[in-house]
């Protein structure tokens, strides 16, 4: 079975995948993994997936990371986390940081071993707005000068979730370069996925 792909843009970042993941994910798994490796982003529109389907699709990209915030985990489906601005009985039903989610972030960048993929499956979307933007950090790194790549070699990100002890424990030069707002940082990804 062939994986039908359409380029997302002229620069080669991202592909739109035209398939039914609920019925074809397992057959297309090797091709999906190769397409993600090559194009860094896959968009698969018009899907109707169950929780079990989502885990099947996630496993196409490697071992599913089940160390998630249990408060927002989907019961019976380790590795699935709810992100939502919906409030029920005074509590958010999913992860929500209270600022309309308008922020830059890299999923799981605070973990010692990075995931190789993150999936976002939208269940409820607004009629207007709600856009998600993606950036290719691998391409951004490749666009840096050799001098800048050498300068940041060995640096790891310091985020609000890991900055307290781990960033202070670094040597002064590395810590200075890795503080939020102190300049660019880079981190190589491992082969785990979520």
Can you offer a commentary on this structure?
By secondary structure, the chain is mainly α. It has a domain of 61 residues. The chain is 28% helix and 6% strand. The chain is built from six helices and five strands. The strands form two sheets. Strands 1-2-3 form a three-stranded mixed beta sheet. Strand 4 and strand 5 form a beta hairpin. The radius of gyration is 18 Å and the shape is globular. It starts with a strand and ends in a 16-residue tail after the last helix. The C terminus is likely disordered.
Features:
194 residues, mainly alpha, 3-stranded mixed beta sheet, two-stranded antiparallel ribbon, 6 helices, disordered C terminus
Biggest β-sheet strands, sense, barrel: 3 strands, mixed
Helix content: 25-40%
Mean pLDDT: 77
What is the succession of H and E elements?
EEHEHEEHHHH
The unreliable regions are: 170-194
Spatial sequence of strands, sheet with the most strands: 1-2-3
Number of strands: 5
Structural class: mainly alpha
C-alpha Rg (nearest Å): 18 Å
**What is the overall number of helices?**
6
Compile the SSE list and pairings:
Blueprint: E1 5-7, E2 15-17, H1 21-39, E3 42-43, H2 51-59, E4 87-88, E5 91-92, H3 137-142, H4 146-152, H5 163-168, H6 172-178
Parallel strand pairs: 2-3
Antiparallel strand pairs: 1-2, 4-5
Helix pairs in contact: 1-2
Give a quick rundown of the structure.
The chain has six helices and five strands; from the N terminus they run ββαβαββαααα.
């Amino acid at each position: 079975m062939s994986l039908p792909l359409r380029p997302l843009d002229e620069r080669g970042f991202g592909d739109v995948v035209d398939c039914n993941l609920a019925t074809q994910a397992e057959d297309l798994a090797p091709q999906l993994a190769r397409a993600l490796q090559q194009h860094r982003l896959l968009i698969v529109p018009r899907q109707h997936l169950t929780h079990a389907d989502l885990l099947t699709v996630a496993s196409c990209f490697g071992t599913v990371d089940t160390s998630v915030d249990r408060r927002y985990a989907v019961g019976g489906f380790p590795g699935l986390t709810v992100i939502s601005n919906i409030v029920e009985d005074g509590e958010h039903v999913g992860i929500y940081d209270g600022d309309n989610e308008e922020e830059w972030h890299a999923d799981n960048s605070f973990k010692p071993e990075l995931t190789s993929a993150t999936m976002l499956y939208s269940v409820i979307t607004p009629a207007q707005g709600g856009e998600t933007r993606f950036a290719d950090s691998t391409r951004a790194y490749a666009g840096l000068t050799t001098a800048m790549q050498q300068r940041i070699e060995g640096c790891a990100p310091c985020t609000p979730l890991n900055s307290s002890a781990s960033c202070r424990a670094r040597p002064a030069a590395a810590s200075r370069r890795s503080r939020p707002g102190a300049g660019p940082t880079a981190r190589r990804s491992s082969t785990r996925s979520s």
